[in-house]
Amino acid sequence: MHTSSVQQNILSELDHELASTRRVLERVPHDQADYRPHPKSMTLWQLATHVVNLLAFKQLFVQHASRDFLDPNGPKPGPTPTSQEELLARFDEYSATLRQALQATDDEQLTDSFRLHRGEHTLFDWPKATAIRLMGLNHSIHHRGQLTVYLRLLDIPIPGLYGPSADEQ
């Protein structure tokens, strides 16, 4: 009987989603960075950058016990990428760092708690594996889905994510 660890399951899921996310990011045109489908929506570039920066957030879940949004010394994303090349380079760097952090952990550490808070107000306090899946992977997949809608509205072909897209049929 083959047993699989929580860590290995997360790594497998992460690898699949990172490959899919990179295919979407490769199609984000910097020359349309200011596009937004609605006044309340992020711009195309803000959304693409957010998808990339979420990778560093996931790494926090793995390596730390908490994060206070009010802490002025808390980790912050780097400057906004100014080209698709910079965006993809950051994606690749953050992806590799996240994978290394996950590989250096184990199932027992992934059951430790991670608390996300704003001062005394707790946003969530979950086992690290849960935080990685819900606020890490699922959160990224949600924003990647938004990004594919932006691309569709800009008439940019969508890559297949869980099978062929309408553009690949």
From TrEMBL:
Stored Gene3D superfamilies: dinb family like domain (1.20.120.450)
Where's the DinB-like domain?
A: 14-147
So which domain of life are we looking at? Bacteria
Which Pfam family, just one, is annotated for this protein? DinB_2
Which InterPro entries does the record cross-reference, listed alphabetically? Answer: DinB-like, DinB/YfiT-like
Name of the protein in its database record: DinB family protein
What species is this protein from? Hymenobacter aerilatus
